[in-house]
Amino acid sequence: MKQLFRQMTLMVITCGFITAAQATTPEEDLAAFQKFYKKRFPNVETSDFVNGAYSIDPVGRENWEAIEEFPPYEPFIDEGQAMWEKPFANGKTYKDCFPDGPAIAGKYPQWDKEKGMVMTLPLALNNCREANGEKPMKYKKGSINSILSYISFESRGQITNVEIPSDDPAALQAYEDGKKFYYSRRGQLNFSCAHCHLQNAGMILRTETLGPALGHTTHFPVYRSKWGTVGTLHRRFTGCNKQVRAKPFKAQGEEYRNLEYFLTYMSNGLPLNGPGARK
Amino acid sequence: MIGNTKKWIGMAGAISVLAGQFLVTPASFAGGDKAIEEGKKISFDRKKGNCLACHNIIGAPSPGNIAPALVAMKSRFPNKEDLHKQIWDATEKNPESAMPPFGKHGILSEADFEKVVEYIWTL
Amino acid sequence: MQKKLLLIFSLLIGILCSGIATTSLAEDTSAAKVQKLIEAADAARKQAAGVGGEWRDTGKMIKKAKTLMEKGDLVKAAKLANKAAKQGHLGYEQAMSQKTLTMPSYLHYE
C-alpha cells in the first residue's frame, strides 16, 4: 500500500514536470508552424518553400531563375569535389570518415548521444580533419563553403528529416533551447527571428520581401550576391543577429547549433536543394 | 531712478542668461517648423528612424508594408502623449508588436526622438 | 555712461554664467571618475552577455570610451561610457523579459 502511494506520487510529479517543461511536443510545433504558412500562402506548394522568398515573390523569382541559369556557386562545387577526393597528409580521405559520402547532407543536423550535443555537418567535417591531423576549417567563410557546396549538391533531393530521439531528454532540451532562441527578442531593435520570418513573412521591408522560415535551411550553403561568395548557415545567423543589433554568437557554438536543430526540424519533409543563390 | 536702473540691469542679465543658453547649447528646443523638418529627415534616415522600412508615408520613396501607413495621425492619436508612448515602446500596448522601441532602447537620442514625434504627428 | 557699462557688464556675465553652467559636467569629470564609469559599463555589458543579451555595439562603445579617455577627452568618454552602461542594463533586462518562452498567438495548435 505504501509503495503504491509512493508510485502514485511519483507519477503525479513526473506528469507535472512534463507539462511544465514542455507545453507542446516537437510534432505539434511542426504541425502548427507548417500550417501557418499554408494558411498565409495557400497557393504555394509546400515543397516550393525551399526557394525562400522566391516562392512568394514572382518578380524576384524571375531574376533568380535567370541567375540560376549560370549558377554562381558552380565553381565552389568543383573545388569542393577536389577537396573531397584529395587525400589528407596521412593518405586517408573524407570518405574514410563518411563511408556514405558525399551525399550526406540529409543526415545533419543530428543528435550525438555520446557527445550530448547537436552535431552539424561543418562540425563533423572538421572532426574528421582533426582526427586525421589536418587543420580545421573556419566556420563562416573560406574553403568550408566549397566542400559544403559539393556535399549539398550531391545531396539534392534528399528529404529533411531531423530526428529528436525520445530516449535522450538532452536532445529534446537542445531542440527546446533552439526554439526559445528563435522566438526570443534580442538586440537593440528588439526583434526575434519569428518577427520577420513568421509574423511578417511575405511582407515588404523597404524593397525586400521577407522570406518564410519554412525552407530556410534547405538551400545552404548559399551564394549571396551581397557577399559575392558562398557562405554557411551560421554566417547567415551572424548577419541576422547583427541586423537586429545583437551581438552575434560564435559560429558552431551551442546557441547556433541548437537553433539549426530547431530550424531544420521545422522544415522536415522538404527536399534539400543546396547550394542556393540569393540576393 | 536708481531703483529703475537696478531693474533694468536685472532684466538684461536674465535675458542674456537665456541668450547664452541658446548660444551654448545646441538648438534642442528649436521648436515649430524647424523641428518638424528635422524630424522628417530623421524619420527617413535608414540609420535613425527608418520609419519607411515598415510604414508608408504619402509621397515617400519605396516604403515597406509591414505596419499601417502613417496617415491621419491626429485622429488616431488625438493626444500627442499617446503617440509619444507608441514610438517610445510599442510593446507596452501590444506585447507582440514588431516595432523597435525607439525611445526605451535609445535607438534615437532624446532630442531626435522628440522631433520625430513632432513630425509624425503632422501626418 | 555708467548705466551703459553696467548693462554690457551684466550681459557678459550672463553669457559667461550660462556657459559655465552647461559645461560644468566637464569640471567634475576627473580621469578616475571616467575610469569608474567605464568599468561600470563593462560590468553591465558582461551581465547582459551572461544571459545571452549583449547588444551589438556595447563593446565597441566601451572601447571607444577608453580611447577617448586616454586622449583626454573626458566629457565625451564619460557620455559614451554611460550610454554603454545603459545598453548593458537594457540588454540584460530584455533577456530577462524573454526568460519564459511565450509562443506567438498567431501560431495555432490543435
Describe the structure.
In chain A, helix 4 crosses helix 7 (144-154) and helix 8 crosses helix 11. Chain A has two domains: 25-70 and 165-278, Orthogonal Bundle (Cytochrome Bc1 Complex, Chain D, domain 2), CATH 1.10.760.10; 74-154, Cytochrome c-like domain (Cytochrome Bc1 Complex, Chain D, domain 2, Orthogonal Bundle), CATH 1.10.760.10. Chain A is mainly α and 279 residues long. In chain A, 47% of the residues lie in helices and 7% in strands. Chain A contains eleven helices and seven strands. The model of chain A is unreliable at 12-22 (pLDDT under 50). Chain C is an all-alpha fold. The radius of gyration of chain C is 23 Å and the shape is elongated. Classes of the chains: A mainly alpha (279), B mainly alpha (123), C mainly alpha (110).
CATH class of the largest domain in chain A: Mainly Alpha
Q: Average the pLDDT over all residues of chain C and give the rounded result.
A: 84
Low-confidence stretches of chain A: 12-22
- Class from secondary-structure proportions of chain A: mainly alpha
Question: What key phrases describe this protein's structure?
Answer:
heterotrimer, B: 123 residues, mainly alpha, Cytochrome Bc1 Complex, Chain D, domain 2, 2 domains, 0% strand, globular, C: 110 residues, 4 helices
Summarize this structure briefly.
The complex is a heterotrimer of chains A (279), B (123) and C (110). Chain A has 279 residues and is mostly helical. Chain A has eleven helices and seven strands.
Ordered list of secondary-structure elements with their pairings:
The complex is a heterotrimer of chains A (279), B (123) and C (110).
Chain A: H1 2-21, H2 26-40, H3 58-69, H4 74-85, H5 94-97, E1 110-112, E2 117-119, H6 121-131, H7 144-154, H8 169-183, H9 193-199, E3 204-205, E4 208-209, E5 222-224, E6 229-231, H10 233-243, H11 254-265, E7 276-278
Chain B: H1 2-24, H2 32-44, H3 73-76, H4 80-88, H5 110-121
Helix pairs in contact in B: 2-5, 4-5
Chain C: H1 2-27, H2 31-50, H3 58-70, H4 74-97
Helix pairs in contact in C: 2-3, 2-4, 3-4
